[in-house]
């Protein structure tokens, strides 16, 4: 009985050791020169089976948990001229055929292929300054910008081109620089400036005719452009120091007062310093509904147009009454004769 027990114990220990050897051999991935790369660089991945050396092993490479190269002898695995396609998480495992030995899946190494991206300001208008921003995507740390242009006004990652130097068709690129490896990125995408004529907004009213005193009126400053514009409003005279400013393109008068009548203008602006569009053609806001005291000749003319028809009717009635009485008097005189 003791011999049988000893034999079974030895067999059990052997099976446990075989199982440990089968499933607990570790694979380790290393990367050279770095896991942060620029497009066009070469990177080398190496899969090491700890404590086993390279004899008799084949390797399986995985990217983002999908099999890339199963049971290959590629070790190290070299990627030349990397692109964005090669960004991802890489792992490996090993297999040795002579004793059917398999390793565990290795640690994960993430490759990041960075690129410089130049963000344009679009559209650009005559006389407007342009700001271009260079972003090196995929890298942490501080970067400066090298711009391929004769107008290099650079503050860190931002290039500003002053209005007079903005030329239609000019092309710009950028790249990142730093002290660590790699020291420079490749050049970014190319941005071509397209300069448009300074826009002129259109000012319209929510009412088709005259505004009734006490009622609301909304003016809309229409500009066929996208966001980042603020709107500036003038009435009676075009004086920038008296302009009111709104973020939206509408100007609301909740209850029209007599002083709200007259001419209105709008224009849009953006940037710092502010770049302004042209003013629109003047829009008249006419009032009706009550007798008002106006302080300008145009408003007095409006009162005349409003009150005038009533006076004409009144005088016509007086004339008709006079004619009636005169005619009646003549008939009476003729009857006596």
From TrEMBL:
Q: Which Gene3D superfamilies match?
A: Immunoglobulins
Is Oxidoreductase tagged as a keyword? Answer: no
* One Gene Ontology cellular component annotation held by this UniProt entry: external side of plasma membrane
The protein's matches in Pfam families, at most eight in alphabetical order, are given as: Ig_2, Ig_3
For whether the record's keyword set contains Disulfide bond, the answer is yes
Q: InterPro entries in the record, alphabetically?
A: Ig-like_dom (IPR007110), Ig-like_dom_sf (IPR036179), Ig-like_fold (IPR013783), Ig_Fc_receptor (IPR050488), Ig_sub (IPR003599)
Gene Ontology MF terms: transmembrane signaling receptor activity
Q: Which of UniProt's keywords are assigned here?
A: Disulfide bond, Membrane, Signal, Transmembrane, Transmembrane helix
Q: Which residues form the Ig-like domain?
A: 26-110, 201-268
First and last residue of the signal peptide: 1-23
Species of the source: Electrophorus electricus (Electric eel)
SMART domains for the chain: IG
Q: Under which name does UniProt file this protein? A: Ig-like domain-containing protein
Indicate the transmembrane segments per the record.
300-324
Q: Which CDD domains match?
A: Ig (cd00096)
Instruction: Specify the domain of life of the species encoding this protein.
Output: Eukaryota
Biological processes per GO annotation: cell surface receptor signaling pathway; immune response
